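Now for a typical sample entry:
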Amino acid sequence: MAGWTQGARLALALWTTTALVAPAAAATSPKLDAHAITVTRFGNDAPWYEGNIPLFESSDQKLDQIYYYRWSVFRAHQRDLGPRGYITTEFLDDVGWQREPYASLNDATGFHIQEGRWLRDRRYAGDYVDFMYGQGGNDRHFSEAIADATWARFLVDGDQAAATRHLAVMKHIYALWDDHYDFDKKLYWVEPLADATEYTISSIDASGGKDGFTGGQAFRPSINSYMYANARAISRLAALTGDKATAADYAARAADLKAQVQKSLWSRDFAHFIDRYKVNNEHVKYWDPIRGRELVGYLPWTFGLPDDTPAYAAAWKHAIDPDELAGPAGLRTVEPSYEHYMRQYRYIKETGERECQWNGPIWPFQTTQVLTGLANLLNDYRQEVVTRADYARMLAQYTQLHFKDGKPDLEEDYDPATGKAIVGLARSHHYNHSGYVDLVISGLVGLRPRADDVLEVNPLAPSDPADPHFLKYFSLQDTPYHGHLVGIAWDADGSRYGRRGLVVTVDGREVAASPTLARLTVPLARKPAAPIARPIDLAVNLVRSDYPKGSASTGDDPKTVHQALDGRVWFFPEMANGWSPGAGQAQPWFAVDFGTPVSVRSAELSFFADGKVLAAPKAYRLEAWIGGKWVETAKVAAPLDNGVDRMTWKPVTTSKLRAVFDLAPGQDMRLVEMKVF
C-alpha cells in the first residue's frame, strides 16, 4: 500500500474488519482487526498498541481519530525510569516546576491512572501508582485524588494486592493535608495555584483585580472533593484487607466532608458549589463567598459527592446555558459575567506570548472532570436538567479542541468563543494534563466499573437519530475488565455488524443484548489479574553526571545525548527528542557506559523519521566491550522509521555497549532512545 494516504489505508483496514467476517460471526461478535487498525493508526509503532489497547470504531470519524490519538499521547508520555518503573509525564518537554529528575507532576495523575487502567499491560498504571506512593512521587505539589484513582484502577483489574499495598502511605499523605485543614470550618483550603488553577476568581479578587497568579487561598469544591474521594477510597481499600477500624474511620471522614461541602460550599444564590475565602485582606474577607460561578463547582459530582436532590442537580443548568458556563467551543472555567473574565494578566517575558489562566478559558483538565461528573450524574442520579445528548455534545466539543490546523495536537487552554489555543507555547504540544479515553469507554460507550462480580453497561450515546451526535454504530473491543475481555457493540439498523441493537460480549461470547441503547447488567465472575512483566532498562540515565553515561562519535551535545537515554520515546515531529550525528557521517556510533560490568541480552532502539532529512539508518550493529575490544552482538538489516527495533542475543557481560550505524550519503538520523536489558 505504498503511496496510499493514511485515510485510504484506514478505510481499507476498517472495511476488511467487517466485510470479510462471516455473517453468523458478525451477528454475535463483530470483530475488529487489531493488526490492521493499529498498523494504520500507528505505523511501525503498532506493536506497542496491538493486543494492548481496547479497539474502538464508530460512525464519527473524528471521535475515532482522537480516541487513537489520545492513546498515542499516553504512549508518548510513558517515561521508563529503569528500576523505578514507568511514570506518566504531563509535558513532553521539561518544565521548571516538575519534580526532578523524574519530570513528574502529581496534578493530572488521576487522569493518567484512569486512562492506563484500560490497558491489557497493567505495568504502566501499576508502576505509576507505586511511584506515587512507594517512591515519593505524590509530593503534594498540587492537590490530588490519587487514592481515588488507585481504587478506580482496582475496579477494572481487580488486583487487590496492588491496590492495597500502599494503604499506610495513603493514610500518611492524607494526614499531611491537615496543614490545609481548617478545624473550625471542617473544610480544606488551597491556593488556586497549588490547585493547578491559577488566576481564578478567588486569586484575582484577593489581589484587588491586579493579578492572581498566587494568593487567593480558599475553601474550594476541588480540594474538598479530592479529599472526600481519597477518604472514601482509603476506607474501601482498608475494607478489602479486613481493617474494619480504618475503614470506619475514613468512611466517617468522607461523610463529614460531604456534609460540610453541602452545608458551606453550596450557594443558594448561585445554585452552584463555590469557593469561600480562607485569606483575609483589604480586598476579601475570611469565609466570604466568591462573587461568581466557576466550572470547578461541578467537581463534587466527579466523585459522586452530592446528594441526589433537585436542588443540587439544578447546578447543571449553568453548564448548558450559553450565557453562563457553556461557551460556543466548550466549557468556560468562569462565567462571562465575571468582571475580569478572559482578561489576560500573564505573558512570557521573552516573547510576549500569553500564559496560562483559569478566568474563562477552556481547559481540557477541567473539561475532563466535568464530563466525568456528568457521566456520574446521568448514571447514578435522578434529574431532568441534562441528558445524554448534552454529554455527547460536550464530548464532541472537547474532541474538536484536539485539532490544530487539521491535525491532532492537544495544547493547554483554549478560547471558549473560537476553540483556538490560547497559550500555544513550545512546551504545550501533545499536552497530557487531561483524560479522554476513559470518557469514551466508561462514559459514551458505558462500561461502568464495579467492585462486585457484575458487568454493567450503560451507553451515554444519544438514542435519538435526529441528534447531531447520534452514532449509527460503535464497537469497543478487547477491553480488559475483571480478568476478561469485554466487547460492546451498537448498530442502529443492523447494516454495520449484521444485527440491530446493543450487544455485549465477554471473551467473544455474547452475554447480553438490547434492541435499544439501554442499561444492561450481567453476572461476571472475576478471574485473577494477569501477571505483570517488568524488564528493567539498564541504560536509563536520569542525571547526566551519573552512570549509565552516553557518548557519541559526533553531535555530542550533552542534552541530545542524554535524551537518547532518558527513558522517553515518542515520534511527534513538533517535539525533537534524541541524538543526531549530523549529515555526512558514514558510520557514526552511539555508546552507553554502564560504569560497571553488567549482563546484557537484548536491546531496543527507536528512530525518528520526518520523511525529509531524518530517517532510520540503512543498517546498524551492536557491539559490546569485551576483553579490551568491541565485539559484535547483534545486527539489524532493516531498521524501522518511527518504531522500535527489538533484538536479542546470547547474554554477555560488559561495561559498555554501542551501536554503529550505516548511513546513506548525505543522510542524517535521530536516535530517539536506546534501551538495554
